[in-house]
Design goal:
The structure holds three protein chains of three kinds. By secondary structure, chain A is mainly α. Chain A folds into two domains: about 80 residues, NADH-ubiquinone/plastoquinone oxidoreductase chain 6, subunit NuoJ (Four Helix Bundle (Hemerythrin (Met), subunit A), Up-down Bundle), CATH 1.20.120; about 190 residues, no CATH class. In chain A, about 70% of the residues lie in helices and about 0% in strands. Chain A has eleven helices and no strands. The longest helix of chain A is centred in the first third of the chain and has 25 residues. Chain B contains three helices and no strands. The radius of gyration of chain B is 18 Å and the shape is elongated. Chain C is mainly alpha-helical. In chain C, helix 2 runs antiparallel to helix 3. The radius of gyration of chain C is 17 Å and the shape is elongated. Classes of the chains: A mainly alpha, B mainly alpha, C mainly alpha. Chains A and C meet through helix 8 of A and helix 3 of C.
């Protein structure tokens, strides 16, 4: 028991040191590298908190894809170093942050001894959906509405990012083309790793019904493979104006809405799944969702159209 | 036992808040905001772990919330980065330093 | 039999952890980029290899074992390619100056 406690304490200390470095260092590039390492360490903390699904999502989205996004932004920025405000301002900010931290620590200490929990309710819906992984069951059945609205948030973010492109580039490709500066090892890696990675992504989504995994982790992995293909120059980002892209991006929401309104007719309520058919219906939604998540994540990273169509 | 991560979460929120205030560069503000968000997610994770019941090792509802939250945080980060890049381009065109 | 396998797991995983420790020390202490890369590859290849080898008797045969080996092979491929990229960048920088 004590060894485990020591391990948790060590992991916590490491998390704080790396996060502190990412926040305090003056070089932007070093800060982003620190943040990516922080995301990977954080996923270990999620394993320690018995949340393997969150760990996979954090490693893939929080560490991996966010890391690529911030890294490419930090490389493009002209100012490489941060100019910090005076000592006085920093001191006041530190005191303020310390007060908030102390308050939150008090909250942690005062958490009720008998923790409120929705686990029994979630367990009930588990039997109905025929799934073995409670986190996936909550995402897809018990709180499916949240998951659907989150797809809408992803789509709105993509619309907002696209609308930042210049008028004369509209319908063109994002400026994310490295095909002229590729190198041998990267090309080999893209050719070997991308097919395997896509397969692992599909596996993660499929196994998510009963074991850690799910549409988010699988979709993020497939997205990472797409980015690797762009970096190696074996593929180019798609034309923002192409029709198939639009359909693929909204596929997840569309299927969700069809199933949702179908619920009125088949089971008497919005997003209610008919008895006995819950699992196949959920799988159909998840297939469309994984496709949309993977594509939207890639498109959010490569940014608005930056070349003439 | 999981309380130790609760304290870590509190410290992460403080660190993120500090960075959010002192940095002048928008990219570093976004990064700090992500650290702050991670702290809040971790707090939810501790609450989920404490809610172990009915044979489950943790309450899956906060965990699902965090999974949704990570993806939403990423969308917001991507939008922020796109805004920064556009601002940077426009500054360059106007010839400002 | 199973006890002998447990002992084997302990020894192999501990050895692997030692390589990680040595690799990290090298990463922090070595003077230039190329020797730091050298230290890192020891951690990735031998350290992770020994840990995977040690864990093989503990997982379901054959698919669990295959997944573990796949993890090792994928990490090898990724670390070899990224080390090449870093090394090329370093060499390229030196040639120009």
């Amino acid at each position: 028991m004590n060894a485990v406690y020591g391990l948790f304490a060590g992991l916590s200390a490491l998390l704080l040191v790396v996060a502190g470095f990412a926040v305090v260092t003056r070089r932007h590039f070093a800060a982003v590298v620190g943040f990516t390492a922080f995301g990977l360490l954080l996923s270990l903390a999620w394993v320690a908190l018995a949340a393997p699904d969150v760990a996979l999502t954090e490693a893939a989205v929080g560490g991996g894809v966010t890391g690529v996004l911030l890294l490419s932004a930090s490389v493009q920025m002209r100012a490489k170093m941060e100019v910090l405000p005076s000592w006085g301002v920093r001191f006041i900010a530190a005191v303020l942050a310390a007060i908030v931290t102390a308050g939150l620590m008090l909250v942690v200490l005062m958490l009720p001894d008998e923790a409120p929990t929705l686990a029994p309710a979630a367990k009930e819906s588990l039997a109905f959906t025929g799934m073995g992984n409670p986190a996936t069951a909550v995402l897809m059945a018990y709180r499916a509405l949240d998951t659907m609205l989150e797809k809408v948030v992803l789509l709105l973010a993509l619309v907002a990012v696209w609308s930042l492109g210049r008028d004369h580039f509209w319908g063109g490709r994002p400026d994310f083309d490295f095909s002229t500066q590729t190198s041998g090892p990267l090309l080999l890696l893209a050719r070997v790793l991308v097919p395997v990675g896509v397969l692992v992504g599909i596996y993660l989504f499929w196994v998510g019904a009963d074991e850690p995994g799910g549409a988010f982790a699988g979709g993020a992995l497939i997205a990472a493979m797409g980015l690797l293909a762009f970096f190696a120059g074996v593929a180019r980002p798609p034309l923002v104006g192409s029709g198939w892209l639009r359909w693929a991006v909204v596929a997840g929401i569309a299927v969700f809405l069809i199933v949702g309104f179908g619920g009125f007719w088949g089971a008497g309520d919005f997003l209610a799944y008919p008895d006995g058919l819950a699992k196949p219906v959920i799988v159909v939604i998840e297939v469309a969702m994984t496709l949309s998540i993977a594509l939207t994540l890639v498109l959010l990273v490569v940014g608005p159209p930056g070349r003439r169509p | 036992m999981s309380e130790i991560f609760g304290f870590t979460a509190a410290c992460l929120v403080g660190l993120g808040l500090y960075g959010l205030i002192v940095h002048s560069s928008a990219l570093r503000k976004i990064l700090s905001f992500n650290v702050l968000g991670s702290g809040i997610f971790l707090l939810l994770g501790v609450i989920a772990r404490r809610g172990a019941a009915a044979g489950l090792v943790a309450d899956p509802v906060p965990q699902a919330l965090v999974i949704t939250g990570i993806v939403v945080a990423f969308s917001a980060t991507a939008l922020g980065v796109a805004l920064i890049r556009r601002l940077d381009e426009d500054d360059e065109e106007e010839g400002e330093p | 039999m199973s006890e002998a396998l447990d002992v084997f797991t302990r020894i192999a995983v501990s050895l692997g952890a030692m390589f990680f420790l040595a690799g990290t020390v090298g990463l922090l202490r070595f003077p230039d980029t190329l020797s730091r890369l050298h230290a890192l590859t020891k951690a990735d290849n031998l350290g992770l290899g020994l840990i995977v080898l040690g864990l093989l008797p503990q997982v379901a045969w054959p698919f669990g074992a295959l997944k573990l080996v796949l993890v090792w092979v994928l990490v090898l491929a990724a670390s070899a390619a990224s080390s090449q990229l870093v090394a090329r960048k370093v060499r390229g920088g030196k040639d120009r100056s």
